Amino acid sequence: MLKNLADRVGSDDDLWIIGDFAFGRKAKDVPFLTEVFNRLPGARKHLITGNHDFQPTLGLGWDTVSPFIELRDGPQNQLNTLCHYPMITWNHARRGALQFFGHVHDNWKGSSNSVNVGVDVWDFMPVRYDDIATRAASLPMNAHWNDVEPT
Question: What pLDDT is recorded for position 62?
């Protein structure tokens, strides 16, 4: 994964980890975590916390650590929501904003506006907004979308 990151993340880029930086025993191994963190590319490194991000991960030199964030990107510079967990609705959901999540591994790719960005469903490659938007366009609408965001 580190090679894949190095191939796609530039030295001036922001790198967003959408939770679960490490898993299992390695998630509490400070020397291991530090070594991996120090090899991450990008100018700024951000962690959206997941259920496997324990204190050793939280204590690394992240530029930001948050359970979720709204981040401007896309053709309309819209506020997209990044959260480790899939959501059925979010701020600006009806204004073209996407939601990026992980957590469910390869069990679900998401829906037309809430997309799984976990490495499990992207061949362990980092993705950019355009990659995510292209996948979103190929996914079905969430079956409960009109229940929570009626027109």
Answer: 98
What's the pTM value of the predicted model, to 2 decimals?
Answer: 0.94
Reference 97, options 60, 65, 126, 69; nearest CA is 69
- Tokens at 148, concatenated: 């929570």
pLDDT score, position 150: 85
User: Please, which residues have CB within 8 angstroms of residue 97's CB and are 6 or more apart in sequence?
Assistant: 70, 74, 78, 79, 80, 81, 90, 91, 113
**Residues linked to residue 110 through DSSP beta bridges, in sequence order:** 115
Q: Are strands 78-83 and 68-73 parallel, antiparallel or unpaired?
A: antiparallel
Say if CB 119 and CB 147 are below 8 A apart.
no
- The answer to whether residues 60 and 37 touch, using CB atoms and an 8 Å cutoff, is yes
Residue 151 makes CB contacts below 8 A (sequence gap 6+) with: none
Instruction: Determine the Cα–Cα distance for residues 59 and 52; give it in Å rounded to an integer.
Output: 14
